[in-house]
Amino acid sequence: MTSTPVAVLTAFNLEYEAVRRRLVAPRTYRHERGTRFEIGSLTSGGSIVLGLTGKGNHPAAVLAERVIQEFAPHALLFVGVAGALWDATPLGDVVMATQVYAYHGGTSEDDGLKARPRAWEAPHEISQIGAHLGRVRDWAEPAGPAFRTPEVHFGPIAAGEVVQNSRISSEARWIRNTYNDALAIEMEAAGVAQAGHLNGSPVAVIRGISDRADGTKATDDDRAWQPVAAANAAAFATCLAEEIFKEQEQRMMHPADFPKGWHTVNNDSSGRVGIQAGSISGTNYVYMTSDASEADAPALAEEELRRFRIDLVREHSSGTIDALTLEAAETELDLTHKALEAAGSEERRRAVLPLRRLRGLVTGNAALEARVDGYITAAQGAS
């Protein structure tokens, strides 16, 4: 069964290599603007798109936008190393962000700097998967100078624009006073979180602790811990991706998630059936619609989207959907239709992204949610 890839971005080569070592048969993919990604798989299955952003929130945001638009990943994981803001987070441990603070927003007044940060919450479903992995600790591998089994911590991460390597500078004191619940500090998560927010793509930020942001960066101790922290972050991130793929497969296999008129057939079924979504691979069930052929699929998709648009207008007329939501939903339907009209399978798969945004717009309406879930699976099966 075809599953949507998970994208993983890193800022530095050390972090990139830590993830790449966990991929099977990575191959180069060149974006039309020259960006090089690699696409590999996990040993348990599922495709990973891997990319390198470079240092800073701005380049990270641009590359995050690019990977989302090109691959419409099920989730985007930003993986690497960071500095700990407090001694309670040991070197080599992993932090998964519950929130990301862009701490360099503020106003300078006569009585000091007043914080005006932006903040992004981690998506609930992925946070739940991460919390489960943290409890069972199946991801952890003893590593590091002391061969201590690493742990994962959950809390806010602060993302700024400069390297923080002090605990006594005025800025360091201000950060610790203003963002006293943040566990780690780094320079890319805010850009990635903003790109995910604008595109309706779930983002998880996973950082291994390589230093304490206390003046020890670039020391022998830091150089010893950086590869350990990167490896631990990569281990947790790939386990998280595996769990995401498992949930994808379970959702795609559950009949209740599909709209009226869709049904399952097992591999022993006979007779003529037309595949509307998915491909048969290692499972006893595939979702299909009857009385349709492959040649009918584009027309069927267009007609179904037209009916969905009509039903949206009806929901608006009945007062269950407001005017702004209707307008936004129609925009996503237009983008979906444009993607489905494209000739190539890769272009048609780009319908997944507007469909995911559409799914968010109709959340709370079970009937519409189920129909959009079916459309997403159809788009995923385009290749």
TrEMBL record:
<dbReference type="Pfam" id="PF01048">
    <property type="entry name" value="PNP_UDP_1"/>
</dbReference>
<dbReference type="InterPro" id="IPR035994">
    <property type="entry name" value="Nucleoside_phosphorylase_sf"/>
</dbReference>
<protein>
    <submittedName>
        <fullName>5'-methylthioadenosine/S-adenosylhomocysteine nucleosidase</fullName>
    </submittedName>
</protein>
<dbReference type="InterPro" id="IPR000845">
    <property type="entry name" value="Nucleoside_phosphorylase_d"/>
</dbReference>
<feature type="domain" description="Nucleoside phosphorylase">
    <location>
        <begin position="5"/>
        <end position="237"/>
    </location>
</feature>
